[in-house]
Task: structure prediction
Amino acid sequence: MVKIDGTVIKETRYIALFSCVLSLLMQAVFLIVLRRFDYTVLLGNLLGLLIGVGNFFFMGIGVQKALKKDADEAKKVLRFSQTARFFGIFVLTIVGVLIPIFDVIALMISIFFPRIAIAAKQIKK
Result:
């Protein structure tokens, strides 16, 4: 079991909080603008958050592991981490698209919230 570095936890919390705020805004848009809100929107949003924030978290774990290796091993660890994360994103997104309890639009939009959070943090700096 890997001990999770404090920086990974701190940054993941930031990404998760920022993503949750964006998710609430998206829920409001669905409710007010699109006049369409049901449990599928909420479930799609939650699955998208799980995918996006989970990807960020596991990326942090991969980087943490790579920092303890030499250069060649670090490249292998990061390559494996990226491949595994992309496979996970692909599988969970396909599940979300194929199972009708998830709203596809809410799912696809919320997957990108962590990227927006990262960009916002970079702009703030």
Q: What stands out?
A: The two ends are 34 Å apart (CA to CA). The chain has a mean pLDDT of 93.
